[in-house]
């Protein structure tokens, strides 16, 4: 059955309501009705988390409007942010069959890369719970939303966004990783194969890769590329692009390693994962930074095997 909804949005005054949440987790409200997860961005802008919202609304169109309103309510607590309560406006939306198109004003583009990805993830995760809404597209002034390389983001579903909250499971798995570290002179990469790596499955493989790069190599002839004091703020995969957000320690390089060796150590290692084609690196959420005054982090990087000089195997 074909459904078509179009709604023009105007500024509204929303009643403030109190929620009880756990950061990057979820809690339930003690009310009757069917439960839905409303996703929010944490105050540090490093992850999204959900709060259970219950409503007796059954009509899909009214439910969509209701969940949009919930995403727009500024919370009383300061630990989290409503994704649609930022300095931009949702102008209107069109829902036709299984596809929902959300149209924002030009200010939407003012967010930094990591925050925009988290806002988009929170909105898509929330609204795809509405019966009949399977796919969502973002537009800005009726033009398709694009990434920093001016490539259209395209249609998204709940499966586009993969998160690991860290409190759902507690098991261990094994993985074979292909990581890239520096050669002895620091001007090339050594491909290092780490087999049967045991890791806690609460974290994603892409975050595990970055953790292993920061920890340094285990094979003879491989040398570190990243300051070991570097902290991972977030690792997110959207549309096969991995967004790696690191703290400012990343900008301090204690090793004699060329800047492109460090960048492609991260990029090549992550692109070895089947769900990643490209990588963007940010520092404290900012991409308008020159790494070692030679490489702009505003770029989205692709695999570069020209720097690889040799292969090493780490002990199991």
Structure, explained:
With 316 residues, the chain is an alpha+beta fold. Helix content is 16%, strand content 31%. It contains 4 helices and 17 strands. The strands form 5 sheets. It has a 5-stranded mixed sheet with strand order 1-5-6-7-8, with helices on one face. Helix 3 runs antiparallel to helix 4 (259-271). The longest helix is centred in the middle third of the chain and has 15 residues, at 113-127. It is elongated. The protein starts with a strand and ends with a strand. Residues 8-31 and 164-170 have low confidence and may be disordered.
What's the layout of helices and strands?
Blueprint: E1 4-8, E2 34-42, E3 48-55, H1 60-72, E4 80-81, E5 90-96, E6 99-104, H2 113-127, E7 135-140, E8 143-144, E9 172-182, E10 189-200, H3 205-215, E11 232-238, E12 241-246, H4 259-271, E13 278-283, E14 290-291, E15 295-296, E16 301-302, E17 308-313
Structure in a nutshell:
By secondary structure, the protein is an alpha+beta fold.
Q: State the shape.
A: elongated
Continuous helix count: 4
What is the typical, i.e. mean, pLDDT? 84
* SSE succession: EEEHEEEHEEEEHEEHEEEEE
Strand content: 25-35%
Helix content: 10-25%
Give the terminus-to-terminus CA distance: 56 Å
Unreliable spans are 8-31, 164-170
Largest beta sheet, briefly? 5 strands, mixed
Strand order of the largest sheet: 1-5-6-7-8
Spatial extent as radius of gyration? 21 Å
The overall strand count is 17
SS-based class: alpha+beta
How would you describe this structure in keywords?
alpha+beta, 4 helices, single chain, 316 residues
């Amino acid at each position: 059955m074909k459904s078509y909804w179009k709604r023009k949005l105007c500024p509204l005054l929303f009643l403030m309501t109190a929620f009880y949440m756990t950061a990057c987790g979820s809690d339930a409200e003690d009310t009757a009705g069917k439960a839905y997860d409303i996703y929010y961005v944490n105050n540090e802008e490093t992850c999204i988390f959900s709060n259970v919202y219950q409503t007796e609304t059954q009509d899909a169109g009214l439910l969509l409007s209701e969940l949009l309103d919930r995403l727009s309510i500024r919370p009383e607590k300061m630990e989290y942010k409503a994704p649609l309560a930022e300095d931009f406006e949702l102008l209107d939306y069109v829902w036709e069959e299984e596809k929902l198109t959300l149209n924002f004003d030009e200010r939407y583009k003012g967010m930094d890369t990591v925050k925009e990805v988290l806002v988009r993830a929170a909105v898509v995760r929330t609204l795809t719970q509405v019966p009949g809404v399977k796919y969502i597209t973002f537009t800005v002034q009726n033009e398709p939303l694009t990434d920093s390389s001016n490539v259209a983001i395209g249609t998204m579903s709940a499966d586009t966004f993969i998160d690991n909250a860290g409190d759902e499971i507690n098991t261990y798995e094994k993985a074979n990783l292909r990581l890239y570290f520096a050669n002895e002179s620091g001007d090339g990469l050594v491909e290092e194969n780490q087999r049967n790596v045991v890791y806690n499955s609460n974290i994603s493989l892409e975050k595990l890769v970055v953790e292993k790069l920061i920890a340094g190599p285990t094979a003879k002839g491989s040398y570190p590329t990243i300051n070991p004091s570097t902290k991972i703020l977030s690792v997110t995969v959207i549309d096969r692009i991995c967004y790696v957000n690191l703290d400012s320690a990343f900008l301090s390089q204690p090793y004699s390693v060329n800047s492109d060796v460090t960048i492609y150590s991260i990029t090549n290692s992550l692109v070895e994962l089947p769900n990643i084609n490209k990588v963007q690196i940010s520092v404290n959420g900012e991409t308008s930074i020159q790494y070692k005054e030679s490489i702009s982090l505003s770029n989205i990087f692709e695999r570069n095997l020209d720097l690889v000089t040799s292969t090493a195997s780490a002990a199991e």
